[in-house]
Design brief:
By secondary structure, this protein is an alpha+beta fold. It is built from four helices and seven strands, in the order βααβββαβαββ. The mean pLDDT is 90.
């Protein structure tokens, strides 16, 4: 059974995420981010009570920036990233946020394809954004609720 939980107060999940996704958190920690960034949100994706992925985004005023979405390597390709994206978009709609932005490496074709599926459009190229690899700035405009 899949479940999404806010991990801000779940220290064990935070430790597990930082361990499982150590390449993502080389120079920072989730606890520091939560304690020092009032705009940040972290949600974990759990299957049978085991964390298998997470999403992190910042909300500032009328916009959202997707910071990170990650699924365990052995769980990728099963729609879990889509599940977390839908979860975030529903939260953003409930908050009356007008758009979501993100940066993605030009060589992360799987992520780019997923973002485009969710209606993100390429807006700009950021030269050498990822240690010599260009990044793509993408944006999704949230449709007004009917």
């Amino acid at each position: 059974m899949l479940e999404v939980r806010n991990i801000k107060e779940d220290l064990e999940s935070i430790k597990r995420i930082e361990t499982l996704f150590s390449d993502v958190f080389v120079n920072r920690s989730i606890i520091d981010d939560i304690n020092n960034n009032p705009f940040t949100y972290y949600f974990g994706l759990y299957e049978d009570n085991e964390i298998i992925g997470f999403i992190n985004f910042d909300v500032m005023y009328d916009r959202c920036e997707l910071i990170n979405i990650n699924i365990l390597d052995d769980r990728k390709g099963n729609g879990y990233g889509n599940y977390l994206m839908n979860y975030m978009i529903n939260i953003i709609k409930d908050m009356d946020i007008s758009n979501i932005t993100l940066e993605v490496s030009v060589d992360n074709l799987v992520a780019i394809k997923m973002y485009e599926k969710f209606g993100f459009k390429k807006q700009a190229i950021r030269k050498n954004y990822y240690q010599g690899i260009d990044g793509i700035l993408m944006e999704k405009v949230i449709e007004e609720m009917m």
